[in-house]
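Mods, move this if it's the wrong board.
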Amino acid sequence: MKTGLIISLLLLLNGCQLLPPAPPAETPAEPVTSLEPPPVTLPVPEPVSAPLAIADDAATLQAWVNYRGAMLGRMNEERDVLLADTEQDEIWALKRTILQLHPDTPYLTRLRVQMQSAEQLAQLPAPLAALLSWDLAFNQKLLEAESAVSALTRLNAQQHDNLERLQKTNRELQKKIDALTQIEAQLNQPVQVPEPEDNNGQP
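Not the wrong board. Structure tokens:
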């Protein structure tokens, strides 16, 4: 019975596959819309970068932001340019400060710049000083973290020295304890008292 049912289902499925496909339903024709030409896109002119200056207008501030971003990838080249520059004005001093605040600059240099920067910030326009204060705040946090790591490293070295000293003392004390234990073991051994002999030398 099951076999007959399976064979009849197989014949039915094969018969369905042999039927010609139904013609596609006709879709209503869409009305032809007028093709609009694509809008003309003009190339966007590149923004003209303002020269670096000590000013508080938006273009100058953006120029300083761009300078800081571009400098990150070419620290050594920028350092060489600043060293070769003979005109050491306010812009040169600000460039030098930004360069010296970079995290790759040695700790003591960044610490010195951090301490001297308050005087320089007071002479800058407020928006430019606010922009530079972000670098100074980051540098302050980095200096604090580096100081903490340095202090922890010193403390770790001191603890390591103390541990070695205590281990040495422990070994010396263990040797003394072992020696005292041996002496105590010798003292606790029963003493064999010789039996008294008579005059003939016999017990």
